[in-house]
Amino acid sequence: MIVGIIGLGLIGGSMAIDLKRRGYADKILGVESEPVNAAAALKMELADEIVSLRDCVERSDLVVIAIPVGSAVKMLPEILDIISEEGNGRKIVIDTCSTKSQIVRVVHYHPMRGRFVATHPMAGTEYSGPWAAMPNLFDGRACIFANSEESDPQALKTVEDLYNVLNMRPIYMNADNHDVHTAYVSHISHVTSFALALTVLDKEQDEKHIFDLASGGFSSTVRLAKSSSDMWVPILTQNRDNVLRVIDTYLEKMNEFRDAIAGYDEERIEKLIAEANRIKKIIR
């Protein structure tokens, strides 16, 4: 199996490590537009070769698109066009993007649509680039398969095997439903972390010791604010409507806390916290 990975950052690089180490891929071909990242990926042995996009598609059995979703949406039709030109109906393409509606929509009528499997491995950290790649990143996590009925059965089975090698559990979901759910469990977390970081940075201009007092709670809450804008700008714009609805709900809850605190309403504050504590039954 020759696997081509477009984007050897946190997700693509981590996938490359485990697919090679666990015997799924005999060879990894990498595509990296940034020269520094390309050199680092080769030095770190994330890829056996760095090649052009066309060379990667033509030589690979399976192509992984692991770049920001804005670029992925533009690139996917081009990749399927190359496969169509070759007349090789056995090649497979997957993406790893965290929004799915637009990427499945853009190739819905493409003659090679069946060779594309839309996936979202639910794993990651706040870091980016080849240096962020790590083994075992995906172990025990969920992988979303979006609109899998539109993919050829053989292509779907091959990709299921790939994620099985990465020790991920599959969840099958409609692309639109996926984007609603990720807005609640992932995208809003990043928005609130960015907002909190901006709030504290504004205060730090006046009080130089505020970060000296930061505890583990603050660090864990604001951790996601370190995430790359290159990744998150297209995610938030593509999932705009869902994210806005979640932000509106979040602001309602924040105002409930504000009103209770402003009114010295200890009973209401306690009730809000107790309601929030129910999350312990879901997330341990």
Features:
single chain, 284 residues, alpha/beta, Rossmann fold, 6-phosphogluconate dehydrogenase C-terminal fold, 2 domains
Describe the structure.
It is a single chain. This protein is α/β, with parallel strands linked by helices and 284 residues long. The protein has 2 domains: 2-174, NAD(P)-binding Rossmann-like Domain (Rossmann fold), CATH 3.40.50; 178-281, 6-phosphogluconate dehydrogenase C-terminal fold (Orthogonal Bundle), CATH 1.10.3660. Helices cover 52% and strands 13% of the residues. It has helices at residues 10-21, 35-43, 53-59, 69-86, 101-106, 153-165, 175-204, 216-222, 229-238, 240-262, 266-277; strands at residues 2-6, 27-31, 49-50, 62-65, 92-95, 116-121, 142-146, 169-173. It has an 8-stranded mixed beta sheet with strand order 3-2-1-4-5-6-7-8, sandwiched between helices. Helix 3 crosses helix 4 (69-86) and helix 10 (240-262) runs antiparallel to helix 11 (266-277). The longest helix has 30 residues, at 175-204. The protein is globular and about 70 Å long.
| Helical segment count | 11
Q: According to CATH, what is the topology of the largest domain?
A: Rossmann fold
The CATH architecture classification of the largest domain is 3-Layer(aba) Sandwich
Outline? globular
Distance between the termini: 38 Å
CATH superfamily of the largest domain: NAD(P)-binding Rossmann-like Domain
Report the structural category.
Answer: alpha/beta
Mean pLDDT: 93
